[in-house]
From TrEMBL, chain A:
This is Vacuolar protein sorting-associated protein 51 homolog. It comes from Sesamum angolense. Its main location: Golgi. Acts as component of the GARP complex that is involved in retrograde transport from early and late endosomes to the trans-Golgi network (TGN). Keywords: Coiled coil, Golgi apparatus, Lipid transport, Protein transport, Transport.
From TrEMBL, chain B:
Residues 5-280 form the EIPR1-like beta-propeller domain. Belongs to the WD repeat EIPR1 family. Pfam families: Beta-prop_EIPR1, WD40. This is WD repeat-containing protein DWA2. Keywords: Repeat, WD repeat. One of its GO terms (biological process) is protein ubiquitination. It comes from the Eukaryota. InterPro entries: Beta-prop_EIPR1-like, EIPR1, WD40/YVTN_repeat-like_dom_sf, WD40_repeat_dom_sf, WD40_rpt. SMART domains: WD40.
């Protein structure tokens, strides 16, 4: 617009300039070509482009010519245009403008013409309006008059009819009243009729209709009537009550009866309470039934007869009664509309009682199959009840209770398991205390406890399997629809059931083995304060633990490590593979968070038992060697070795020692397996001394009667000691008969050496020891396996004695030999008669 | 040689049982060792670690009249020590003073400070209060406990009090509490008894403990370490004597003696009749609360208490002593008279580790040709000694025959 405006302004300016040019010069084309020295008047405006341009003069001229600001402005613009464009441009512009002006002129003419037409038609219209308006006024006045007359007439009619209408209304009211009175007078008869036809609903309707009137006038005019109808209503109430309580009536009818009673303002609550009590009574009977059922199943369990036929009858009876109960509950629910919470509570109570009974059974250590049947029965009951009463969310509740029950069962199974084992183990202790002689008490105990371990674990697994199955069956038993609903509600719970069970069993195993280990340690007296939480038995004084028991424990630990755990692991893997649960139970360990790791770690349990097994074995060896040490200490503390008399026979303590070894051997033989026969042979040649030692009887050295030679024996021993390998006395103990016995013998001999080193001997003392050792050489060969080591240690004892002897003169070999032979003969004589 | 420890050997001429650290010698690391020879003249060796720390030098050799069964150095005077001796049926205990040496070695006579007479049965040991100057001395025999008041300048020792432990208790040894000069522990057949020296009465006891040797922890009060009769080492808290705080496996055969390190808490040395010395670290602090879950703890977290085992000994090791001057050095004495001095080079590290309750087991290649050679050499020495004895005996015999 502005640009357009600018253009139009330019155009106007151009036109102005054209005009000016036409005014000041005759030929516009010659105007620009005017010579500079023309008259000042001509030069005034055109002098802008000339060199002789005088601004002041020019402006004055402009002021004179164009007072008007606007024109001046336009003029300046024009000047600009003129300055900017050349001649041809200007001419071109001029032509354009001329054409434009022509166009504008034609446009103007057109507009004028059109407007004129419109004006003519408008004037015509106005003229017509003026003529029409003239008749309207009179018409309006007529209309007003008519309306006024209509109003006056209607008023007249109204006043004339008023009186009659009042009367009619009064009459109508009276008639209604009369009708009511008639109804009330008829009421007793009508009620009677209703009672006869058992149309209680109508009767109640009538009665309740008449109630307000009886309330208002019952004391005065309708006294009789009221009394009669009340009597009738009482009969009705009685009848209804009877109907409610009678089971024969249909539930609908009973519900209606209750509704009617409620309408009659009868105290329904008391009815409700009564019915509820009835239900409760029913429940008590039912519970008794369930107890009978479980009892009967326990009885079946108690008897070896596996047939479960007698179970069937009570089970069906139970089911029937539960069905009945369910029906009753359904009726109650229908009858009393808002009774769900109460009923929920009742049924939950029912389930709870059921589980209480189960718990008692669990405490009685029932068989897992029985638990499963009980759970199944409960579940079917619950399903029946759930059909009638979904609000109680019984399956949910029952599942949770069942979980608790199963958990209890598993833990109780484990504790019984532990008790079994401890019983088996404790038999050893008991027997030894009572002194009952049995041929192989230790072996029996070991076998019993091993059996207990295996059976216990297998029982737990059986239970586990059965329970897992139960979960499956429970889910199957649940109807499709129900199941879906359950799934929707608590899918997590149902799906977690198996995982939970698995976790419990695994945790149970882990815990069980830990407890077992603690218990073993407690038994062995090796535990300290911390593990005394295991209050299975009162702690026994450390001194009284039978060494045999420790040995049994050692072997039992080994057994658990080597065969029980692998079997359990195997069983577990098998179970989970079969159940297809392997993935869930191994990856992430079911519900238990993976950060805790899987609950049962066989490797860890194995490690624990391996270490305890070793510990027990060492403990056993310790206990035994300690006993022998005491024996040795007593032997060497008692006599005055410096004043010892000449040896006459092998000393008694050797017998005691051998007796001790024999006892150990019998114990060890019962418990430990036989090792591979493997004699510890010296690998390198030991020179004459060593080879002579290995068969000392036939050695010619014994024939030498010279004490000097005998003395050189000592030297030889030392020489031998110098050149032979360092004897490994303290080798690792294995759990075999030979290893244990040999270790004990070796340790005892080492102890003997140490005890000898603490004494000082005279010649006879030395000879006594020499004799004793010589005798031992023969006898120990039978007992200990590692002959070389034993020989070496025996020699060491003699050497040590010689070192501690003031006058080490050995006994002459023949004498030695003779004394030993006498002793041998004596012992064999003693053994023969026995 | 062991990876983290170096051993220096020294051979005593005869069999020996006892070695003691000379605590009062603050300039040198020295030990006193006494021999146990039935037939020869016994000796007391004063051993000193050379300044380079590479060898044990015999600084003094003194003859001693009888077999030495116990030897203890006075904790405040480096020249004074006590011995328990016996020969055959004679027995006795005495306090000796090493004569001024003045550079020469040839002054074999010990000066007797006091003779602890009055014992009626075999003397077990003489105890000095281990912590500092104390004018009392305790001697233990099989049945009695004697408290002596010793005056070293006047060279007198008088029985201050004496008490019998009872006929039934067959005393075997004891230890004096370094934290309490009035408290002493005595080992007997089947218990450890704690006595108060002021009242000379038994104050407490650990029953049913067959203990061979006891030692108090020098650093941690109320801590007692016992070597059980049949291997095992138990650590007790004296305030709760029902159960040991911790137990260590000990040795396969008897654990003869236990010694607590004088500086590093929980560092225990044990010597056994299985010809080995074991170095243990009993992290008793960590054990106190973790005893209950030690079973549950994974094997990696369980601390391996055995730090090192020195087992190139030929015979049972009876003598053991930490150096109080350089607590990473200890001396051991095996029955064949070989005295071994071990320097645990990583001991400073151990100290660090002990404080941090961490463990680093110093293990290195064991055995090897070197050990074998050394063993043969030591056997040969022993053999030669005995050869001499035998020749002596046979000479006498020859005389007998001639006669």
């Amino acid at each position: 617009m502005e640009v357009e405006g600018g253009e139009t302004l330019d155009d106007k300016a151009k036109r102005m300039r054209d005009l000016l040019l036409s005014f000041y010069s005759p030929d516009p084309s010659s105007a620009s070509s005017l010579p500079p020295n023309t008259s000042s008047r001509f030069a005034t405006l055109d002098s802008i482009n000339t060199a002789s341009f005088d601004a002041e003069q020019y402006m004055n001229l402009l002021d004179l010519s164009y007072r008007d600001e606007k024109v001046k402005d336009r003029f300046i613009r024009l000047i600009h245009v003129v300055q900017k464009s050349n001649m041809e441009g200007l001419l071109h512009k001029h032509v354009e403008m001329a054409a434009e002006i022509k166009n504008l002129d034609t446009d103007l003419q057109m507009l004028v013409y059109e407007n004129y037409n419109k004006f003519i038609s408008a004037t015509d219209t106005i003229k017509r309006m003026k003529s029409n308006i003239v008749g309207m006024e009179t018409n309006m006045e007529q209309l007003l008059e008519k309306i006024m007359s209509v109003q006056s007439r209607s008023d007249g009619v109204n006043t004339s009819l008023f009186e009659k209408r009042k009367h009619i209304e009064k009459l109508h009211r009276t008639r209604n009243l009369l009708r009511k009175v008639q109804f009330i007078y008829d009421l007793p008869a009508r009620l009677e009729k209703c009672i006869k036809s058992e149309a209680y609903a109508d009767a109640v309707k009538f009665y309740t209709g008449a109630m307000p009137i009886f309330k208002a006038y019952g004391d005065s005019s309708f006294q009789d009537c009221k009394r009669q109808s009340e009597e009738a209503v009482a009969i009705i109430i009685n009848n209804l009550e009877g109907k409610v309580f009678s089971d024969a009536e249909s539930i609908q009818a009973r519900a209606e009866a209750v509704m009617l009673l409620k309408q009659l303002d009868f105290p329904v609550e008391s009815l409700k309470v009564k019915l509820f009590e009835k239900l409760e009574q029913f429940l008590v009977d039912l519970n008794l039934d369930s107890k009978e059922l479980t009892n009967s199943s326990v009885d079946v369990n108690g008897s070896p007869d596996p047939g479960r036929v007698p179970d069937a009858a009570p089970a069906t009876a139970h089911e029937a009664s539960v069905r009945e109960f369910a029906e009753a509950v359904r009726a109650y629910k229908v009858i009393f509309l808002d009774s769900e919470p109460q009923l929920s509570k009742l049924t939950q109570d029912f389930v709870r009682k059921h589980f209480e009974a189960t718990h008692q059974q669990i405490e009685k250590q029932i068989h897992s199959a029985d638990l499963v049947t009980i759970l199944r029965v409960i579940w079917s009951d619950v399903l029946l009840l759930d059909e009638v009463l979904p609000e109680a969310s019984l399956p949910d509740f029952a599942l949770q209770s069942a979980l608790v029950a199963v958990k209890d069962y598993i833990s109780s199974a484990f504790s019984h398991f532990l008790l079994h084992i401890s019983d088996a183990v404790m038999k050893v202790q008991g027997r030894q205390k009572e002194g009952i002689e049995e041929e192989y008490p230790l072996q029996a105990a070991l076998e019993a406890s091993q059996k207990a371990v295996l059976q216990g674990s297998m029982n737990v697994f059986l239970a586990h399997t059965l329970i897992s199955n139960v979960w499956g069956q429970l889910i199957l038993n649940t109807s499709e629809q129900e199941f879906r609903r359950l799934l929707d509600e608590n899918s997590g719970l149902l799906l977690k059931l198996r995982d939970l069970t698995i976790d419990w069993v695994q945790e149970g195993f882990q815990d069980f083995f830990r407890k077992l280990d603690d218990y073993f340690r407690l038994l062995s007296g090796k535990s300290n304060v911390a593990s005394q939480e295991v209050n299975l038995l009162e702690r026994m004084p450390g001194d009284k633990i039978a060494a045999g028991l420790v040995l049994v424990l050692a072997q039992l630990s080994l057994f658990i490590e080597q065969s029980a755990i692998p079997r359990i692991t195997e069983a577990r893997n098998l179970l989970y593979f079969c159940g297809g649960e392997i993935a869930s139970s191994f990856s992430g360990g079911g519900v238990r968070g993976s950060e805790y790791g899987p609950a049962f770690v066989p490797a860890e349990v194995c490690r624990i038992f391996r270490s305890s097994g070793e510990m027990f074995l060492h403990l056993y060896i310790n206990m035994r060697t300690q006993k022998i040490s005491v024996l040795l200490k007593k032997r060497f503390a008692a006599p005055n070795w410096v004043k010892h008399k000449e040896p006459r026979e092998v000393h008694m303590f050797v017998d005691l020692l051998l007796q001790e070894f024999e006892e150990i051997r019998t114990e060890v033989k019962q418990i430990l397996p036989q090792g591979i026969l493997r004699k510890h042979r010296r690998t390198d040649s030991n020179g004459s001394a060593a080879s002579s030692r290995s068969n000392p009887l036939r050695d010619d050295r014994l024939n030498r009667s010279n004490t000097q030679k005998a003395r050189s024996q000592l030297l030889e021993t030392h020489l031998a000691k110098l050149f032979k390998q360092k004897m490994e006395i303290f080798t690792k103990v294995e759990q075999t008969q030979e290893s244990v016995i040999t270790t004990i013998v070796k340790l005892s001999l080492k102890s003997l050496q140490e005890v000898v080193r603490l004494q000082t001997f005279n010649r006879s003392g030395f000879q006594q020891i020499q004799l004793d050792i010589h005798f031992l050489k023969f006898t120990l060969k039978r007992i200990a396996e590692d002959e070389a080591a034993v020989d070496f240690l025996l020699d060491e004892v003699i050497v040590s004695t010689a070192e501690r002897c003031l006058d080490p003169v050995p006994l002459e070999p023949p004498i030695l030999d003779r004394l030993v032979q006498t002793k041998l003969a004596k012992t064999s004589e003693q053994n023969m008669p026995s | 040689m062991q990876g983290g420890s170096t051993g220096i050997g020294y051979g005593l001429k005869y069999q020996a049982r006892c070695i003691s650290d000379v605590k009062a010698d603050t300039d040198h690391t020295s030990f006193l060792a006494g021999t146990l020879s039935l037939k020869e003249e016994n000796e007391v060796h004063l051993l000193r670690l050379s300044s380079g720390g590479t060898e044990l030098i015999c600084e003094g050799l003194f003859s001693h009249p009888n077999e030495i069964w116990d030897l203890a150095s006075c904790p405040f005077d480096q020249r004074i020590f006590s011995t328990v001796f016996s020969s055959g049926e004679t027995y006795g205990a005495a306090v000796w003073q090493i004569p001024e040496l003045y550079g020469q070695l040839s002054s074999p006579q010990l000066e007797s400070v006091a003779s602890l007479d009055g014992h009626t049965c075999k003397i077990r040991c003489v105890l000095w209060w281990p912590t500092g100057r104390h004018d009392k001395l305790v001697s233990v025999d099989e049945q009695n406990l004697f408290l002596w008041s010793l005056d070293t300048s006047k060279k007198t020792a008088q029985v201050q009090s004496q008490e019998s432990a009872g006929m039934l208790h067959y005393l075997t040894g004891g230890a004096w509490d370094p934290h309490d000069s009035n408290s002493i522990s005595l080992t007997c057949d089947s218990s450890v008894q704690f006595w108060d020296l002021r009242t000379m009465k038994k104050t407490n006891s650990i029953e049913h403990a067959h203990v061979r040797n006891v030692d108090y922890d020098m650093k941690k009060r109320y801590t007692l370490v016992t070597a059980e009769d049949e291997s095992g080492i138990h650590i007790w808290d004296l305030r709760n004597l029902k159960f040991p705080v911790a137990d260590l496996p000990g040795h396969p055969h008897w654990t003869w003696t236990v010694k607590c390190n004088p500086v590093y808490e929980g560092l225990i040395l044990s010597a056994g009749t299985d010809s080995a010395v074991n170095l243990w670290l009993a992290s008793s602090l960590g054990r106190n609360d973790s005893a209950s879950d030690s079973l549950a703890a994974p094997p990696t977290r369980r601390i391996e208490p055995l730090l090192n085992s020195y087992n190139d000994y030929e015979d049972s090791v009876y003598g053991l002593a930490w150096s109080s001057r350089e607590p990473w050095i200890f001396a051991s004495l095996s029955y064949d008279g070989r005295c071994g001095l071990w320097r645990e080079q990583k001991m400073s590290d151990f100290g660090f580790l002990v404080h941090r309750q961490k463990i680093c087991v110093v293990e290195g290649p064991r055995g090897g040709h070197f050990n074998q050679e050394r063993r043969v050499i030591s056997c040969l020495t022993l053999f030669i000694e005995q050869w001499k004895t035998l020749r002596h005996v046979s000479a006498i015999n020859d005389l007998d025959v001639k006669a």
